[in-house]
Design goal:
Distance between the termini: 34 Å
Order of helices and strands: HEHEEHEHEEHEHEHEHEHEHEEHH
Structural class: alpha/beta
Largest sheet: 7 strands, parallel
Helix content: 25-40%
Number of helices: 12
Strand content: 15-25%
């Protein structure tokens, strides 16, 4: 089943990536790709009932941020009567699995494809295959190495990292040792959160980053890494974690070693859930976290427009909020979706 053919199609932009011949060749395939555009008469949808299907390839449902994103996306999609969200595909941090899942959505001829890439390089060709198949694509949270998509929705990770660095400087007025627990090293959010933090610390020679490790966004990794640092006697005054679960895991390890009172913790995500970063700030486990919006509402709105052949903004950057004890309760109340998503 396919959509009613439409007129007024315009070529999608494609930019060759000079540094990678394979990607350049793949991008060239996209030069002739086009989104589904509206001819002014509307469309009856795949089944003739006005319903458009959305396929979502998620990087890893096990991460609290992504589990919350899934719930929110399902909620916001339901607010659009002409949209139907297919069962979310969970890659479980497996690139090959996610590529296969994207290809399955392409074979199903979904009306809109949403992808939160586990890693950029392996998913880029699959995204370009969707582009070649003229399926509108939304990239959510993590970038791919092609311009052959319709919209990217995500936060300003460099700015968030910089704000976290500024908070670390404020928390360590006499200087100190910082340990950084980084996300999946190949992903753009991790890279930008690291760069922003380093930019903020530049010139503050009394603050030294003495430890850095990849925590893969996972709480157990944060716990294990912190235990290893403490066991070898590393003096740590502050832990900067690229997400809240890793920060909470590290704080738990420090607490178990009787050192939590001597170490400050900063995270990112700011989820309004019982075991999320906002509650950790309220409980004194972290001194701050930074809201990283899921983009679920924006993704649903963008998918609705794309399905109907409307133009959308190519890059949609979401704002952040610094969350400390002074505003944690207010921010939690503002973003708590328990009654909506269950």
């Amino acid at each position: 089943m396919t959509l009613t053919p439409r007129t007024g199609k315009s070529p999608r932009p494609a930019k060759a990536l000079a540094a990678a011949t394979a990607l350049a060749a793949s991008a060239a395939l996209c030069a002739g790709c086009a989104s589904k555009t509206d001819d002014g008469g509307g469309s009856s949808g795949k089944d003739g009932d006005g319903t458009f299907t959305i396929g979502y390839a998620q990087a890893n449902n096990a991460e609290p941020y992504r589990a919350q994103l899934n719930k929110q996306l399902a909620y916001y999609v339901k607010r659009h009567k002409n949209l139907k969200l297919l069962p979310i595909a969970d890659a479980k941090q497996d690139n090959a699995r996610q590529v296969s899942q994207v290809q399955q959505f392409i074979q199903q001829k979904v009306d809109v494809l949403i992808v939160s890439p586990n890693e950029p390089d392996p998913l880029t060709p699959a995204v370009e295959q969707a582009c070649q198949a003229k399926i509108p694509v939304i990239i959510l949270d993590r970038a791919v190495k092609t311009d052959c998509y319709d919209a990217f929705i995500g936060g300003d990770n460099f700015q968030i990292g910089k704000k976290a660095g500024e908070a670390a400087i404020k928390a360590l007025p006499d200087g100190g040792n910082v340990a950084e627990i980084r996300g999946l090293l190949s992903t753009d959010p991790q890279k930008q959160r690291h760069k922003g933090f380093a930019a903020a610390l530049k010139g503050h020679d009394d603050i030294k980053v003495v430890e850095q490790r990849e925590g893969k966004w996972l709480q157990p990794e944060g716990t294990k890494i912190m235990q290893q640092w403490l066991q070898r006697g590393t003096k740590i005054d502050l832990v900067y974690s690229h997400n809240d679960p890793m920060a909470i895991g590290a704080q738990s390890a420090a607490s178990g070693a009787g050192k939590a009172k001597d170490i400050k913790f900063i995270g990112i995500d700011g989820l309004a859930i019982p075991d999320g970063g906002i509650r950790a700030v309220q409980q004194g486990k972290m001194i701050a976290t930074y809201l990283y919006p899921t983009g679920a509402e924006e993704a649903a709105e963008t998918a609705a427009k794309l399905a109907e052949g409307k133009k959308v903004e190519k890059k949609q950057t979401l704002d952040t909020t610094e969350i400390t004890k002074s505003n944690a309760e207010d921010v939690y109340g503002r973003y708590d979706m328990t009654k909506k998503t269950g």
